[in-house]
Amino acid sequence: MPATPPTATYRVQVRPGFDLDATAAIVDYLDDLGVSHLYSAPLLTATPGSQHGYDVVDHRAVNPELGGEAARHRLLAALRDKQLGLVVDIVPNHAGVAVPAANPAWWDVLRRGRDSAYADWFDIDWDRGRLLLPVLGDDPAALDDLKVVDGELRYHEHRFPIADGTGDGSAREVHDRQHYELVSWRRGDAELTYRRFFAIAGLAGLRVEDPAVFAATHELILRWAAAGEVDGIRVDHPDGLRDPVGYLARLREAAPDAWLVVEKILEYGEELPDWPVDGTTGYDALAMVGGLFIDIDAEGDFTALDNRLTGQHTSWEDLTHTTKLAAATQLLAAELTRLAALAPEVPTEQARAALAEIAAAFDVYRGYPPYGARHLAAARSEAGRRRPDLAAALDAVTRRLRNPNDELGMRFPQLTGAVMAKGVEDTAFYRWTRFVALNEVGDSPTRFGVPPAEFHRFATAQQVRWPASMTTVSTHDTKRSEDVRARLAVLSEIPGRWAEQVKAWMEYAPLPDPAFAHLLWQTAVGAWPIERERLHAYVEKAAREAGASTSWADPDPAFEQAVHTLVDQMYDDPSLHDELTELAAAITPAGWCNSLGQKLIQLTMPGVPDTYQGTELWDNSLVDPDNRRPVDFDVRRELLARIDGGWRPPVDTDGAAKLLVVSRTLRLRRAHPELFTTYRPVPAHGRVGRHVVAFDRGGAIAVATRLPLGLARAGGWCDTALSLPVHEMKDLFTGRVYSGGETPLDDLLADYPVALLAPSTASVEAA
Fold it and tell me: What is the rounded CA–CA span in Å between residue 625 and residue 707?
């Protein structure tokens, strides 16, 4: 762990349109908010026009579309002026190759093939022949559109290099002499000869396990770290690497003082291995925090509702096996073929089938020796149960997979992570729609809520093992923002009303895919009011990701039109619009209560809390790219200035109450880190104690309301109280001072559903 990890980060989606200078312009606001570090999206040169930066094309320079090196220095100057640090996002697993001319290394590989100085940079199977590039239209005559222009091969807007001495003759003849072959985009999933990021042909896998490739692709970032210009590094998708453990050891050695977190997605019950890092990027915390606000008792009601709506009982295990097997054998067929070729002792089709079944049965993203042995054993057992006819092939490949030094054993984990991501995150999460607030990375749709005792056990363990791990409740990868999920959690308190309402809507305006209809209605209620064009964009992406009634590869115009028609009905049909608006309005106040509670818990629990851009106010964003929309920082500055001037906003005003909670909590953590060094649950005494979550971090005490509708039905806090330390404590949200001992919750939480108590002697600027 670094000597001084951040006290809190703020994630900014630096991109063309909000570049490094625009980011520098909000540093004063971030300082006022209370963070210690700016946490930036990737900064290296990316594919032209990239809105996310995860498609790096040149590791030697800052993206000129972000302002380049000069703008980076201006940002550093602004940060130093406010004594803030910088955390950067890096992308070791893959590089952007969708625009070959933008990536000098890839361009050289296309031009020179195996003789390129960069041939070893990319994870290419050269033994399978020419490098296949899936860019052609789905037309046997597509190659007729090739042209030779200015010494390059051109296919519409696509440009490709021509190897020396091969440029004579027709465009087709020139093409046939190259080290690459242009093929239909439909052949990509099955036949590509290079490893991709998931199933995205425009993102080619890098071989950072090679020390020379590591050095070349990390030189600039590590130079910044050595110069003290970077304080932390966020590692994107380590599961895709051939040797994540070795990679992280090399990175830690090269940047020993950096705060280092990894985007490692842990399944329920899985623990982060003892890697030389400070923790994860917080999806594990997201699942725990959000689950606190879901009524566990409603699980049976939602299961029964889902069965009635869909007309069938679908188990999560069977669904995910189906979607993961499809991902392995279809979307990732090229990677599967490469693995099967590494097991020549098994007939090819049996090897493919056995590897696909084991990958589909793998219960985590990937195993890590020696931790992965039990996951492999469980997957082999489950695969054998489903396919007893493959017993011999399963045994043969499993023997190979147990050996971490075997080439097959090294590469197979790269497949299981991709299968999990594509089969579960990007497919099953859109098909299994019993209660979509649970359908998030790091969470499990089958784990219906988190009891406070389980959360306390998790937080206690985090304080011991990973006290500097990141915590979050919203990221650029969440399917729904924290506030949408917080509002959806309210439905778990009114399962009967929700069942009655959604059944009526689905009868009035039916879709041929009832599972997707249930997702759509939950999403609309969770985000309402939402601009029509945003909901249209969301449902098209969601329906295609589900892949049940339409898909990206083969869109079904009739189904998609039916979905868009339903969305329009929500706005244009008076009865539907009024009922939707009425229900959303009815659950919104309790949703706000949940939002404030989960935000306070995330910001105060063990770990380094991150605030995703804009979410310090109410933010009803949906899946990317909706959650990358521009943020109005002027509005946030003005509201924060009013709060600092003494205004105590009511909960229902523009999200200002959330800004109050965020700013006061972050300022306390920054000014008094000594108050956040331990973890102890604070029990409530009284009839409705289950409705409060409270803990002491070593001087700072967080108190949050849970299940607010149930609390109201019980008649409020009544006799319920917390035992506070016997010295004066000040609530940073209201300014009230409490003398300790048994403190009634109806007094402590009279103004807000949350409280943050600190010793009255603790001084926090403007708090």
Answer: 31
> Can you give the length of the chain in residues?
767
Nearest to 548 by CA among 445, 447, 466, 431: 431
395's tokens: 């045994």
The secondary structure of 241-256 as a DSSP string is SS-HHHHHHHHHHHST
Which tokens belong to 358? 């084991």
Question: E strands of 641-700, at which residues?
Answer: 680-681, 684-685, 692-696
β-bridge pairing 729-731 and 737-738: antiparallel
Q: What tokens were used for 366?
A: 């990937």
CA 700, CA 601: separation in Å to the nearest integer? 12
Gap between the Cα atoms of 656 and 645, Å rounded: 13
Radius of gyration of the chain (CA): 27
Reported as a pLDDT band with limits 50, 70 and 90, residue 653 is confident
Burial of 305 from C-beta contacts in 10 A (0-12 / 13-18 / 19+): buried
618-638 residues labelled b (16+ CB within 10 A) or e (exposed): bbbbbbbebbbeebebeebee
Select from 31, 104, 124, 472 the least CA-distant residue to 282.
Answer: 472
Nearest CA among 580, 511, 594 for reference residue 548: 511
CB 263 within 8 A of CB 234: yes
Nearest to 734 by CA among 642, 675, 650: 650
Region for residue 556 given its phi and psi (left: phi exceeds 0; alpha: psi -120 to 50; beta: otherwise): beta
- Distances, alpha carbon 460 to alpha carbons 127, 453, 607, in Å: 51, 11, 11
pLDDT for res 434: 97
Q: How far apart are CA 199 and CA 188, in angstroms?
A: 9
The pLDDT tens digits for 140-188 are 899 999 999 999 999 999 999 999 999 999 999 999 999 999 999 988 7
User: Which tokens hold the place of 223?
Assistant: 């130079």
Distance CA 655, CA 737 (A): 25
Distance CA 45, CA 533 (A): 31
pLDDT one-digit tens code per residue, 257-292: 999 999 999 999 899 999 999 999 999 999 999 999
Distance between CA atoms of 28 and 40, rounded to whole angstroms? 16
- The SS3 assignment for 715 reads coil
Q: Prior bond to 92 cis, omega within 30?
A: no
**In this model, does residue 625 exceed pLDDT 60?**
yes
Residues forming a β-bridge with 615: none
- The confidence score (pLDDT) of residue 371 equals 73
CA 159 vs CA 45, 110, 111, 332: distances in Å: 19, 11, 12, 26
Tokens of 343: 């097991």
Can you tell me the distance from the alpha carbon of 598 to that of 286, in angstroms, rounded to the nearest whole number? 9
- Select from 156, 149, 154, 174 the least CA-distant residue to 164: 174
Which residues, 6 or more positions from 50, have their beta carbon under 8 angstroms from its beta carbon? Answer: 15, 16, 65, 96
Average pLDDT estimate for 538-548: 98
CA–CA separation, 22 and 38 (whole Å): 13
Mean per-residue pLDDT of the chain = 96
Residue 369: pLDDT over 80: no
740 Cβ contact partners less than 8 Å away, ≥ 6 residues apart: 724, 725, 726, 727, 728, 729
| 352 pLDDT higher than 80 | yes
Residue tagged 């923002």 (tokens): 481
Report the C-alpha gap between 202 and 194 in whole angstroms: 11
pLDDT in tens, 392-419: 999 999 999 999 899 999 999 999 999 9
Q: How many angstroms separate the CA atoms of 470 and 282, rounded?
A: 5
Question: Mean of the pLDDT values across residues 702-729?
Answer: 95
> What pTM was estimated for this model as a whole?
0.97
Q: Is the pLDDT assigned to residue 767 strictly greater than 60?
A: no
